[in-house]
Design a protein that fits this description.
Number of strands: 10
CATH class of the largest domain: Alpha Beta
Helix content: 40-55%
CATH topology of the largest domain: Rossmann fold
Strand order of the largest sheet: 1-2-9-10
Number of helices: 11
Largest sheet: 4 strands, parallel
Strand content: 5-15%
Distance between the termini: 16 Å
Order of helices and strands: EHEHEHEHEHHEHHEHEHEHE
């Protein structure tokens, strides 16, 4: 699995919970975070590099644990590796549209995700009967990367993004970036209990399970300890792993 940073750990935790026998590898491309402000061409190049690295380490399946990377790069990776079980991310528009009572859905995401044609297609396909209000969240990923999940500055930033959505009557909020589940407790403190918070980590884990089962690739265990790499400063990721992953682990520099 790879992501632009540590956000994909929220998805990795769901996979660990559902598939405890699987050995997990994770690359944080923190040297280039956030992807949301990068060009599609740059992101596609990073997807190729990171996929090739993980496959060289023996990966039998690949998860793009990043909405922006999925938008830019998943189609090309599927062409390059047609036999590889490959799972991407997309904002949970369909379940949000089904869940809303007010008919107004808010989306918290990166600029890159919200500007994409794929996101527009999701809205056309699943949200024609509801009103969707999008909110780009610059700066939020960087706060989460630093482990500042409940800092005053993070709270102030998030409050500024959420307030306009609530003012428009949103009763369902889509967490359209894999980093954002880590601030669910903070977000929950800022919105009424009646507002639903929806992300796609558990759905991705179920899709991984399905694809591995179809190909008779499910591991019987025991799992090897999870392996971590970072293209940024390994010590920085190592510092936040206990908070975001739940335990300490060694982080290697991405070659």
């Amino acid at each position: 699995m790879f992501d632009s940073g540590v956000g994909g750990l929220s998805v990795l935790r769901e996979i660990r919970s559902l598939l405890p026998n699987e050995s997990l590898m994770y690359v944080a491309d923190s040297g280039h975070v956030p992807y949301g402000e990068k060009s599609p061409e740059f992101i596609r190049e990073r997807c190729r590099v990171l996929a090739a690295f993980l496959l060289s380490q023996g990966a039998k399946a690949l998860v793009l644990a990043c909405n922006t990377a999925t938008v830019a790069g998943v189609a090309e990776l599927r062409e390059l590796y047609p036999q590889l079980p490959l799972v991407g991310m997309e904002p949970a528009v369909k379940p949000a549209a089904a869940a809303t009572q007010s008919g107004v859905v808010g989306v918290l995401a990166t600029t890159g995700t919200l500007k994409s044609a794929k996101f527009a297609a999701l809205l056309d396909r699943f949200a024609s009967d509801v009103r969707v209000i999008t909110q780009p969240c610059p700066g939020l990923v960087e706060r989460i990367e630093a482990g500042e999940l409940d800092a005053a500055a993070t709270r102030e930033l998030l409050q500024g993004y959420v307030a306009p959505l609530l003012a428009e009557g949103c009763d369902t909020l889509i967490l359209g970036c894999t980093h954002y589940p880590f601030i669910k407790p903070l977000l929950r403190s800022l919105v009424p209990e009646s507002v639903s918070l929806i992300d796609t980590g558990a759905a991705v884990a179920r899709q991984v399970q399905r694809l591995l089962a179809e190909r008779d690739l499910l591991a019987t265990g025991p799992a090897q300890p999870a392996q971590f790499w970072s293209s940024g400063e390994p010590q920085a990721m190592q510092h936040v792993l206990p908070l975001l992953w739940g335990s300490a682990a060694r982080v290697c520099a991405l070659p």
